[in-house]
Amino acid sequence: MNEFIFITSIVLFLATIVLTNNYFNQLAMKLTERQFQKKYGYSIEKMSFSYEQMVYLVKLPSNSPALKGTKKEQIYIDYDYSSFIFPSLKGISVNLKTGNEKITLAYLTIDNYRSPILDKLFKEGIIDEEMYRKISTSKIKHPKINEMMIDEVFKKLQVGRYKTIKEGVDN
Fold first, then answer.
1. Residue ranges of the domains in the chain?
2. CA 31 → CA 27, 34, 55, 133, distances in Å?
3. Contact assessment for residue 117 and residue 42, using Cβ atoms and an 8 Å cutoff
4. Which of the residue ranges 9-23, 34-48, 62-76 would you say has the lowest mean pLDDT?
5. Which of 157, 153, 155, 142 shows the shortest CA–CA distance to 79?
6. If DSSP states are collapsed to H, E and C, what string results for 127-140?
7. In angstroms, how far is CA 7 from the centroid of its own chain?
């Protein structure tokens, strides 16, 4: 009977860690974000960023029947974590849901998600690499940023990667 109680306690303990892990991770990210905003005066939401290092896994623009009739509402973002128990964001994937099929359109690693403000603070030694990563992770998970990335991937699916550049040169 004691073994049963011991095993049950361990299982409940591990289940509690797994189930509350995401909540406490989000809470820690929010606290880090507030601390950063208070200490350095930069709003995470308004900070500029670059996702030009995003790797597209489909041809741009796509003539594929599965991708040609894509609606923006079908595109969503998944977070890629390195661990389940102590999650560390490795990157995000931008996916397309078509029926029962999931097509990964693009992937961006957290290391390639750059911000000029954070780069400046890091170069000056004001923040360290860990703070840079925490703020980048907080920013990349912001709902407005997710919407902007979905818009960008959708646009590139429709018109291609360099369409706007060529239009600017021709005019």
1. 2-170
2. 6, 5, 31, 14
3. yes
4. 62-76
5. 142
6. CCHHHHHHHHHHHH
7. 37
Reported confidence tier of residue 7, pLDDT bands at 50, 70, 90? very high
Using CA atoms, how far residue 26 sits from 21, 87, 130, in Å, is: 9, 11, 16
Q: What DSSP designation does 100 have?
A: T
Output the six-digit token pair for 11.
């299982």
Backbone angles phi, psi at 9, to 5 degrees: -65, -45
Q: Could you tell me the pTM of the whole model? A: 0.77
| Long-range CB contact pairs, 125-134, < 8 A, 24+ | 126/40, 127/40, 131/32, 131/36, 134/29, 134/32, 134/36
Residue recorded with tokens 């239009």 = 167
**Does residue 71 or residue 167 have the better pLDDT?**
71
**42 Cβ partners below 8 Å, 6+ apart?**
36, 117
Q: How far apart are CA 11 and CA 139, in angstroms?
A: 34
Higher pLDDT, 160 or 52: 52
More confident position, 118 or 23 = 118
Using only C-alpha atoms, the chain has a radius of gyration, in whole angstroms, of: 20
